[in-house]
Design a protein that fits this description.
Layout lengths: L1 E4 L17 H16 L6 E6 L12 E6 L6 E5 L5 E5 L17 E11 L11 E6 L5 H9 L7 E3 L8 E10 L2 E8 L1 H4 L5 H19 L1
Helix pairs in contact: 2-4
């Protein structure tokens, strides 16, 4: 079974290097991503790609069946005839991502607060800059960012509220069909230099998308 991280095959500009030895395989897997995200499906169905294998030096007559893996953002695929199969991760934002998603959450309101606050004032955040989006203001781009970064399952507090005064404070509240998800980050700038860097970058990307929506 092939387990593939699509971003491993891209250079700093997000392109597939021409000298990459596995370029043909990467383009094959990229075509699977493009097909699934163009017409997203939740159960395995045929995409317009022939199997790449040549068992016994003869082209496999099979076609590729692919779909989003249930409960995740991974894409799973397999040949309808032979046993070639795989799982594709980190395809989001690559040149093959066509924007389609099998299932997006229903988001009713997004509130983002950020700024500097004294540790004595954590219960009174009225002075912080706030961005509130609801209804048509919640663009599909924001919903996709929340979905792709799996933020609905990331409720909680991150960072140490006892480090520094004033504190750098970020709060993201997502109201959705399944309830309310509240994420609080203390001293985000410091956390980016320590552990769980990728998670905090994901939070930062979503918050940045929200701030861009406010100014557009």
């Amino acid at each position: 079974m092939w387990i593939t991280d699509m971003k491993h095959f891209l250079d700093a500009q997000g392109n597939v290097p021409s000298q990459l030895t596995s370029r043909r395989l990467v383009l094959y897997l990229g075509a699977i991503v493009a097909n699934v995200t163009t017409a997203p499906v939740q159960s395995s169905c045929a995409v317009d790609i022939k199997c790449r294998r040549r068992p016994g030096r003869k082209s496999c007559p099979g076609t590729i069946l692919a779909a989003f893996e249930a409960g995740t953002t991974n894409i799973i695929w397999h040949c309808s005839v032979c046993e070639d199969r795989g799982l594709i991760r980190h395809w989001r934002g690559t040149p093959w991502d066509k924007g389609g998603r099998a299932e997006l959450p229903t988001i009713t309101r997004v509130t983002y607060r950020h700024g500097l606050v004294s540790d004595d004032d954590l219960e009174d955040l009225t002075g912080l800059k706030s961005v509130v989006l609801e209804g048509p203001a919640i663009s599909r781009e924001i919903v996709v960012a929340i979905h792709d970064n799996e933020l609905l399952g990331a409720a909680g507090e991150y960072g140490d509220p006892l480090v520094g005064d004033p504190l750098e404070y970020d709060e993201l509240v997502i109201e959705h069909a399944g309830g309310t998800t509240r994420i609080r980050l203390y001293n985000r700038g410091i956390m980016l230099l320590t552990t769980n860097e990728e998670f905090y970058k994901q939070i930062h990307r979503v918050c940045g998308t929200i701030e861009e929506a406010e100014t557009s």
